[in-house]
Amino acid sequence: MFPGQGSQSPQIGVAWRAHPSWDVVEEASDATGVDVGRLLCDADADELLDTANAQLSTYVVSVMIGRALGAAGVEPQHVAGHSLGEYSALTVGGWLPLADGARLVNSRGLAMRDASAAIPGTMAAVIGLEPDALVTLCGSVDGDVWVANDNAPGQVVIAGSAAAIETVGALAREGGARSPIALKVAGAFHTPFMASAQEGLDLALARTSFTRGWATPWANVDAAAHDDAGEWPGLLSAQLCSVVRWRELVMGLAEAGVGQVVEVGPGAVLSGMLKRIAPGLGRQQCSTPEQTEAVATQLR
């Protein structure tokens, strides 16, 4: 499993500079014209909050770690990513070449940055209410706000205008939820606010070729596995303005017989969600060379 935007942190790449998998960073930099190594090692938190920088840096470091696991003898049977992480999953699973993936993620980030500037918005996690209740609350307020991520039992992300989120948050607290937790993002992703970004992403997707990989990829938009490469441009396009159905996706993996999950990339957000969704699944996390070697030793 591969995390999405918001999991990035300054200097996440420093520990990897001398690792053989660092060539992923160099290839992505060549493909995009962006100094990804500087983003991973020198950029501060404010620079990484920028949507384009956050997405490209998270994608590259996740793929780098995935490559390191593969080189150590660990190859997944299934791959899935949360929002942006879907691109990392497709690359590590063999469906999307690194250079094409880096260009696609960079185009996606730039388009989402422009869309966020045109229609400002934000996102917040609500703890303690289920999606149906929040859909009702969002529909009851005067303003633009929607359910964006169904992450785990009792953990749902809403997105839209800051004022509307504040109003829904107050209603959610009256219904027994905790105060909404603001996310480290610069826009209202997975909502109609991203419609103009979807147009830009579609242009980039039309220039990108997907091929059948070796690991089965799962999609956010319908929480299902898709082994037809021709479906993925449409799935990735739809994802931008659709709810991320992460809870259902994890449940589907468990029902498909998956027994061990490795979170590959910065942070440990997905591992926390996994514990709440399917506590019977084994889970490990890889963000450093030491963790990666330990996981590879255990799983080989």
Largest sheet: 4 strands, antiparallel
What is the architecture of the largest domain at the second tier of CATH? Answer: 3-Layer(aba) Sandwich
Helix share bin? 40-55%
The shape is globular
How many strand segments? 8
Low-confidence stretches: none
- Order of SSEs: HHHHEHHEHEEHEHEHHEHEH
Order of strands across the main sheet: 3-4-2-5
**Looking at this structure, what is the CATH superfamily of the largest domain?**
Malonyl-Coenzyme A Acyl Carrier Protein, domain 2
Number of domains: 2
Gyration radius from CA atoms, angstroms: 18 Å
What can you tell me about this protein's structure?
The chain starts with 22 loop residues before the first helix and ends with a helix. With 300 residues, the chain is α/β, with parallel strands linked by helices. The radius of gyration is 18 Å and the shape is globular. The chain has 13 helices and eight strands. The protein is 48% helix and 12% strand. The model has no long low-confidence stretch (mean pLDDT 95). The protein folds into two domains: 214 residues, Malonyl-Coenzyme A Acyl Carrier Protein, domain 2, CATH 3.40.366.10; 61 residues, Alpha-Beta Plaits. Helix 4 packs parallel to helix 5, helix 6 runs antiparallel to helix 9 and helix 9 packs antiparallel against helix 10. The strands form three sheets. The protein has a four-stranded antiparallel sheet with strand order 3-4-2-5. The protein has a two-stranded parallel ribbon with strand order 1-6. The chain has a two-stranded parallel sheet with strand order 7-8.
